Amino acid sequence: MKKILYLLLFISLASCCKNKDGGKNTVKKDSVVADPNNINVSILIDLSDRIDPNTNPNPTMEYYQRDTEYIKAIEKGFVNHIKSKRIITYDDQMQVFFNPEPSDPKMNELTKELKVSFNKDTPRNYFDSVDKKYSELPLKIYNSAIKDGKYVGSDIWEFFKNKVKDYCIKDDRRNILFILTDGYMYHQNTKFEEKNENSYRTSYLTTKLIKANNLTTSNFKDTIEKNSYGFVKANENLSNLEVIVLGINPEKGNPFEEAVIKEYWENWLKEMKIKNYQIKSADLPSNLEPIILKAISGK
């Protein structure tokens, strides 16, 4: 009787171990789960002539100065977030990117300095070091770009196409990308169109294109929808990326220009499955800082 019981028990265990793969036991690896308390913050800077104080002057506060204050606010939000956690849970990083890279070779060294990370072994005095770097180095970057004067544009479209996943997205973190730009998108190496009878998509957006597409009246949204105007989709699924665009600054002459720019961006981000995004105008840093801090805290 005992032998029969043992045999039945063996058969039962064997049948439980079988699966659809021919009865062999397989171990399923756990998938990586993002921890929302660990953040990966990236800053993409548009170093086109939008920052040139001669071409685009602003007597209240120059646009490159606004950018440096935005960056300080981003760093403040990043550090505040880390300080709100227990040291043992530190696993956060922040970095700055350009696309394309400026001609000044010193820029590479500056971006290396601005790539900072925190873990459980990070000493307390590292916070002061990060504050100092983000208070001083961004201004050096802008001053170098302005002094160089060779504004080649900012290839934001190509960055989203070929670099954003590798540079700005970590599977185990909450990923936040800040883009400092006036909202126009243009680079000579990535200027193309996809046009057919149902749509007209471009990799760029200029005030000239906005005028050519007759997006200068209050019914611009209807015109965009009817002709399927917009950016060419640069990526398929960026659902694990949050995007905050800062500095939208339309050219004068078209009262609907800013709204058109924001519509292009919003539709583009949605098409790439980015659910959490904000698109803000080039306001004074004191007005945008609370928005930046809230975006990082997630509260």
Automatic annotation (TrEMBL):
It comes from the Bacteria. This is VWFA domain-containing protein. It comes from Chryseobacterium contaminans.
